[in-house]
Amino acid sequence: MSKYKIGLFGFGCVGQGLYKTLSENNADAEIVKVCVKNKEKKRSIEAEKITYDAAEILNNEDINIIVELIDDAKAALEIVRAALKKGKAVVSANKKMVAENLDELIALQKQYETPLLYEGAVCGSIPIIRNLEDYYASEQIEEIKGIFNGSSNYILTKLFQEGKSYEEALGEAQANGFAETDPTLDVGGFDPKFKLSIILQHTFGIRQHPENIFNWGIQNISEKDIAFAKERNLKIKLLAKAHFDGKVLSTLVAPHFIDEQNPLYHVENEFNCVLINGKYASNQTLIGKGAGSLPTGLAVLSDVIALTQGYTYRYKSADFTSGGSQAVEVYLSFNDIEDIDKNAFTSISESYIGSDYGYIIGKIELEALQQLLNGSSGVNVVFTSGKQTEIEIPNLTYSYAN
Amino acid sequence: MSKYKIGLFGFGCVGQGLYKTLSENNADAEIVKVCVKNKEKKRSIEAEKITYDAAEILNNEDINIIVELIDDAKAALEIVRAALKKGKAVVSANKKMVAENLDELIALQKQYETPLLYEGAVCGSIPIIRNLEDYYASEQIEEIKGIFNGSSNYILTKLFQEGKSYEEALGEAQANGFAETDPTLDVGGFDPKFKLSIILQHTFGIRQHPENIFNWGIQNISEKDIAFAKERNLKIKLLAKAHFDGKVLSTLVAPHFIDEQNPLYHVENEFNCVLINGKYASNQTLIGKGAGSLPTGLAVLSDVIALTQGYTYRYKSADFTSGGSQAVEVYLSFNDIEDIDKNAFTSISESYIGSDYGYIIGKIELEALQQLLNGSSGVNVVFTSGKQTEIEIPNLTYSYAN
Ligand SMILES: NC(=O)c1ccc[n+]([C@@H]2O[C@H](COP(=O)([O-])OP(=O)(O)OC[C@H]3O[C@@H](n4cnc5c(N)ncnc54)[C@H](OP(=O)(O)O)[C@@H]3O)[C@@H](O)[C@H]2O)c1
Ligand SMILES: NC(=O)c1ccc[n+]([C@@H]2O[C@H](COP(=O)([O-])OP(=O)(O)OC[C@H]3O[C@@H](n4cnc5c(N)ncnc54)[C@H](OP(=O)(O)O)[C@@H]3O)[C@@H](O)[C@H]2O)c1
Q: Which residues lie in coiled coils (chains A, B) (predicted)?
């Protein structure tokens, strides 16, 4: 008989991953009840473990760990709230729910003196939160960034390596269990934004709501954009980035051109990568699968085991000024130049205008870019500027067709 | 006044790194006394903190953490032994001392109920021991390997990228503080063997004395070997490798040919890389500086902070059979074919014999290779075979000069 009794919510991709990894480990914890939604579905576990009633788990006093692995952020918040209020320890892999409600979740942990862990919510199998909390707590981190979304990276890999269509690649990512139920979260750059928001808390002790982070996804990347990148031996990767100089925080999620010298160039398929730049150890790189049943199951299991050892996050905090205006350099592609307000750019280094495709490479304030993107259709943007991981676009001379 | 008072042994490269990183963090720990050896040296710290007498620290009851950062493994063992016996918590970065005495050190920790941590001893700034102890404890790791010696990797980078001579490159590594006081430990492949031995304990719960691990270093790499690699677009990297199938353990440290597809190809200078292959999360990669004052200082500081939080290693253990005979594929180069017993090879796929340089590429048992290397001079060996990180040598046709 284990000391720790788990009530599990959700038995989908990650829930089953946890079930398998836990059953193969001799942890002092066992799953005693599983709450799911759909009564019609066949399950691979004993019928008496299944329930459709959340209260049956939440009111069970024998259950001391709640693992929340459902695909509904709203319902997840209610479960996690209720569990914490009952003094149960909680593990969740729901980045949307955690990122959007971190203030409340930290307060609840404090008030009810019970921990919430969420390693599985951030970059799948990469142990990033634990390392930020423990090992990197004494590092002075200046920048943290990387590929935080396995599903988009999988799609980009298929687009670049195999010349697949966007729809085909998305379908494959979904079939492999890498994609969120709502694919917009992945391909729109929301999911990496949730992760970035959580990471900010554990890296810098800074709370920034995902709403306040700029995001642009990969769903508007056209064949022309891919051809542009390929001609210059570049790839496009969806990056999440945060830079903190001790006072001002700059954050964003956007596709970036990446050249071969960049470690991110070689991170393919559902793999994620976190790059940490600190004052003492300079560059640190962590690469691992960012999604999938067993990789994420392992991360969730590591949290369960941490709970059985009394582990909690410490939540340092820092004062900071919000980012204000960030100047960025971008490649902006469009169908029709008439749709584009060129004055939004502070400087333009290259432009091309064709009959149904054109682009501008130039410097622009992030807020002006946001306005431009909001007000236009048929546009896409890929970032080119910045420190270290980004590159200067090689200055090619182009023939201007019309 | 901090609760934790540190007695520091050694104020060289790493000792000063710890001093700086600690002084910039608000840890609940302070260095109250520093023991060094040479009375003539000028020090950058207050004279009243300096002592030349180990007993002054070891007998000081106020001091509850001993940090051992000297470059003498024998003296280090005595300090650590004495400290543990006095019930003081200890941090060390001495891989030789830890690897060669791990049985005793584990027993002492148990007997005196006081912890010893040594993150800084293994791969500098990469938090590998902590992750193996915590996060990866529930992973089923099949293979762990990588570049574990910053100094050799720095030398190899200079040889390959800048065409520097071996002596010049070694001198630079020493000037930068990456090399051990005795360079044979680094370039002879002993230092990575110590680290591998420590890693085996924390990955598989297996104790293997460094004496029982095959090692061949980089000090015999000739210009011809480098030319051979370059012609095939390969690099040579000094790898430490361990494979455990749940019963049989295979381990070795040796130079390997690495191609561009391999993540290790891009790990240069003093950077180290650890590749972990597990059943659940498949490949995980950690890259960071493997040496240097501040990177190693950070690792040591993280141990100090862990001690203030009551952290200890758990030391799982496993039954296993020793490796027995491993068949490997190697490139063996020589000055004179007369020195080489070709019958030691079980098969030969390629050979070249010139007037003062020749090579054989073939399969051989590790023990036979060891004998052959022991009995010959003017030879060098680079491994080509194995799983994942190693490559098949492309089959080039050669003209045979004589
Ligand atoms: N998939 C990944 O690789 C990955 C990686 C990292 C994090 N995550 C996160 O992990 C969580 C789960 O993802 P998933 O991919 O495992 O989702 P999934 O495969 O779609 O499974 C979702 C599970 O939740 C159950 N469920 C939904 N609403 C429920 C409710 N109100 N009460 C009880 N059960 C409910 C579903 O029940 P039925 O079985 O009855 O439909 C299903 O078992 C999400 O937060 C996701 O963001 C996923
Ligand atoms: N350098 C790196 O990047 C690195 C990385 C990882 C691990 N390490 C490990 O860290 C340890 C220290 O390396 P290091 O590079 O800092 O060495 P170092 O620069 O040569 O400094 C050695 C220090 O130890 C002192 N010392 C030597 N014997 C002593 C004794 N018996 N009693 C008291 N003090 C003594 C020396 O005193 P004096 O100042 O009086 O000469 C000096 O301060 C070694 O175990 C090494 O393997 C080093």
A: none
Task: Please state, as a whole number, how many other Cβ atoms lie within 10 Å of the Cβ of residue B316.
Answer: 14
Clarify whether residues B153 and B111 are in a common domain. no
In this structure, what are the phi and psi dihedrals at residue B165, rounded to the nearest 5 degrees?
-80, 160
Closest ligand 2 atom to B291 CA = 3
* Mean pLDDT, contiguous 10-residue spans, chain B (402 residues): 93 97 93 97 96 98 98 97 98 98 98 98 97 95 96 96 92 87 92 98 95 95 94 95 90 94 91 97 96 96 96 89 83 93 94 94 94 92 60 30 29
Q: Which ligand is nearest to the CA of B178?
A: 2
CA of B156 to the centre of ligand 2 (A): 24
Number of domains in chain B: 3
In a domain, A312, yes or no: no
Q: Which of B38, B69, B181 to mutate to test the pocket of ligand 2 (most atoms within 8 A of CB)?
A: B69
3-class SS of residue B60: coil
Q: Residue A135 falls within a domain, yes or no?
A: yes
The domain in which residue B22 lies consists of 4-121
* CATH code of residue A160: 3.30.360.10
Single out the residue of A235, A293, A230, A290 nearest to residue A263, CA to CA. Answer: A235
* Nearest residue on chain B to A139, alpha-carbon basis: B298
Q: List, as ranges, residues 113-142 from B with C-beta within 8 Å of A.
A: 119, 124-127, 130-131, 134-135, 137-140
The tokens of B282 are what?
Answer: 């498949």
**CB-side exposure of A334: number of CA atoms within 13 Å?**
20
Q: How many CB atoms lie within 10 A of CB B247?
A: 9
Given a contact cutoff of 8 angstroms between Cβ atoms, the answer to whether A248 and A323 are in contact is yes
Residues B357 and B281 in one domain: no
Listed in sequence order, the residues at least 6 apart from B152 whose beta carbon sits closer than 8 Å to its beta carbon are: B186, B187, B189, B192, B217, B218, B238
Residue A171: Cβ-neighbour burial (10 angstroms; 0-12, 13-18, 19+)? middle
Which domain CATH number covers B377? 3.30.70
Reference B283, options B292, B293, B273; nearest CA is B273
Within-domain flag for A299: no
Q: How far apart are CA A243 and CA B278, in angstroms?
A: 32
The pTM (predicted TM-score) of the whole model is 0.93
Domain assignment present for residue B305? The answer is no
